[in-house]
Design a protein that fits this description.
The complex is a heterodimer of chains A (117) and B (115).
Chain A: E1 2-5, E2 10-14, E3 19-21, E4 24-27, E5 31-38, E6 44-50, E7 56-58, E8 64-68, E9 73-78, E10 87-95, E11 106-107, E12 111-116
Chain B: E1 5-7, E2 10-13, E3 19-24, E4 31-38, E5 42-50, E6 53-57, E7 64-68, E8 74-78, E9 87-94, E10 105-106, E11 110-114
Classes of the chains: A mainly beta (117), B mainly beta (115).
């Protein structure tokens, strides 16, 4: 079984400032890692994913994340946020090479990012 | 290319009733998963279907059930509704190609309110 911890439930940040949203996971098997964004009254949109290879992954809207296996972390960063980045962000894991091919995702509790003008 | 379509978007039901939610995956996607999202519990996995077979199930009571049709469309049913079933129900579809790490695409959800 896997678990995901998002260390901050709310993060306020001024417009054009950098931001980091933290995510730690626990798993006894190899996992794939994802960050999703949810705008009010909407579903989830994938920002980026880590499957293998380079530990720094770039996603949409200028976001990037770094996979750190030793620290079991997958923190999301953006060098300069915009008002439109105000949303809730979810970190998720999925068992890698699950054989039967289950696509079950385990999510963190989410981090609400508020960009202050 | 059409995304994942969930209907209806909003529902209000009374305790004790039952409800059926529908999900049409992206064309060609054969895996459909359902999640419940509440402020207290966050996003929790309900079940996953692939080729009309339930492949995985989360820790929910038997009142929650689902099925998948031959065209990959899926429905979930909740019987004997309780106030605690009020939530946003999200459906996700995935393209099963045999390659690793295929992402899940989410619909906009069905907001169920039980009164």
């Amino acid at each position: 079984a896997q678990s995901v911890t998002q260390l901050d439930s709310q993060v306020p940040v001024f417009e054009e400032a950098p931001v980091e949203l933290r995510c730690n996971y626990s798993s006894s098997v190899s996992v794939y890692l994802f960050w999703y964004v949810q705008y009010p009254n909407q579903g989830l949109q994938l920002l980026l994913k880590y499957l293998s290879g380079s530990t720094l992954v770039k996603g949409i809207n200028g976001f990037e994340a770094e996979f750190n296996k030793s620290q079991t972390s997958f923190h999301l960063r953006k060098p300069s946020v915009h008002i439109s980045d105000t949303a809730e962000y979810f970190c998720a894991v999925r068992e890698a090479d699950s054989g039967a091919g289950s696509y079950q995702l385990t999510f963190g509790k989410g981090t609400k990012l508020s960009v202050i003008p | 290319k059409a995304g994942v379509t969930q209907t209806p978007r909003y529902l209000i039901k009374t305790r004790g009733q039952q409800v059926t939610l529908s999900c049409s995956p992206i064309s060609g996607h054969r895996s459909v998963s359902w999640y419940q999202q509440t402020p207290g519990q966050g996003l929790q996995f309900l079940f996953e279907y692939f080729s009309e077979t339930q492949r995985n199930k989360g820790n929910f009571p038997g009142r929650f059930s689902g099925r998948q049709f031959s065209n990959s469309r899926s429905e979930m049913n909740v019987s004997t509704l309780e106030l605690g079933d009020s939530a946003l129900y999200l459906c996700a579809s995935s393209l099963v190609t045999g390659s690793k790490g295929t992402e899940a695409f989410f619909g906009q959800g069905t907001r169920l309110t039980v009164v």
